[in-house]
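Case study.
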Amino acid sequence: MKRFKTILHGLIVPVILLVIWEACARAGLVSEVVLPAPSAVALKWWQSLLPAQPFDPAAGTYLAWAFSGELLHDAYASMFRVLVGFAIGAGLALPAGLLMGANPRIYDLFNPLVQVLRPIPPIAYIPLAILWFGLGNPPSFFLISLGAFFPVLMNTIAGVRHVDGIYLRAARNLGVKPLTMFTRVILPAATPYILTGMRIGIGTAFIVVIVSEMIAVNDGLGFRILEAREFMWSDKIIAGMITIGLLGLALDVAMNTLNNYLLRWHRGLEH
Amino acid sequence: MSSQIIVTGVNKVFRTPEKDVVALKDINITIEPGQFVCLLGPSGCGKSTLLNAVAGFSLPSSGTITASGVPVTGPGPERGMVFQEYALFPWMTVAQNIAFGLEVKGLGKAEIAAKVDSLLDTLSLKDFRNRYPKDLSGGMRQRVAIARVLALDSPIMLMDEPFGALDALTRRNLQDELLRIWKAFGKTILFVTHSIEESIYLADRIVVMTYRPGTIKRDQWVDIPRPRDPADPAFNELKRELGRLVMEEQQRHAADELKLAAVD
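After joint prediction, the assembly is written out as follows.
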């Protein structure tokens, strides 16, 4: 009941804004091209969610048909890029960060390079990405993995370096050898940091995917809203933006759920 | 192998840029197997330094320490340590914490499970086996830490102010538990405390240490039969005597701090 009330409470402001927006659009205060009515946006969103063609058993299964809408196709394409790019970026950053965090020599060797490269926004790599990887998915993967790489790297390093010495002492007292120390003590102790890095990393990956789709590919949500601009379909642009927002939210919720599960032992997360 | 601890001519100097601090000076003690020995003194008297040297975390600058006949060169499971800060691994459940040392030893799954079960029983932790340390009270956490060390089957138990952070009732409760375990398992215990009452309540023998440089001021045997009653006249007489010794050192400590503050 209380939850229901909270939800209701949170809806007040958005609903009022929507009503004002709709009223302005209907009254003709703003041009349809500049700002279409929310109802038009919603309609467009629903239309692009549904399959474009009627169901034809000869063309494929019902399920494939049900998911053949443009929006779902684009959302899938974008999500796929985010996940592949993130997997590459985080997959490289995690071992690199563990090594740099655990070994001062390696840290001293690589830290200057990291500090110089880190402030370059992934978007600045676009020209190089196209030169190196041409068009299609590869430059996207490259840019997204870059976006995910540094947050995961920095947080992993910090996590390993901040492991409380008392755990190391206790483990040495139990007779723990270096490899076990790493996998059973240092790694879990650093998980809160690592997961924070992953959460930031997937957020960056999601920003980069939209930008990268505006340059080198011909599907995905980023591509779709840029394409809609060419035809001045502002309802489609906004519908695409809303989808991007929903996907971003879904990613964050998924990350958060994973966090809460993996860190169920962690003091900071007591509910 | 006897679980004897022999400390011979141990010195420990901490070098700082300003000056060298002599934390331990010419310490000689022999602790016989099965003895319960308390190291007592004000903070800064080197009692924890001595314990850490026996544990192997911080080796002496000179002198030797042997435990069970083997020279101490580093930390090891044959000298299990219970820390004041519990030092439980927060990502492991109670049972996993206790099992960890056994897994490191390479014991089989069934053997580990049986041992963990019996220790959970010994320390009344059965209902908490799948809890994480964050969900436990301080007293419960220290029970787990004790169980973790008992699991190692180490003949020697080192304890660094283990009950310092607990309230008086929980503390008494754990002290009784510790005495029971000490009797049942026949451990040699070296226990650091700054509580005079705690040392008399627990120990066979109390080693009072001086403030910088850390030396042995008094090696006091406690003959009061157990269970000891803190209201007992003999208990109080010893408490008064040790209190006087510790206060002398505490005053030197305080004077030193004032001097340092004046320099600043």
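Observations recorded in class. Residues 70-265 of chain A form a domain with the MetI-like fold fold (CATH 1.10.3720.10). Residues 101 and 157 of chain A are 4 Å apart (CA to CA). We will return to this complex in the next lecture.
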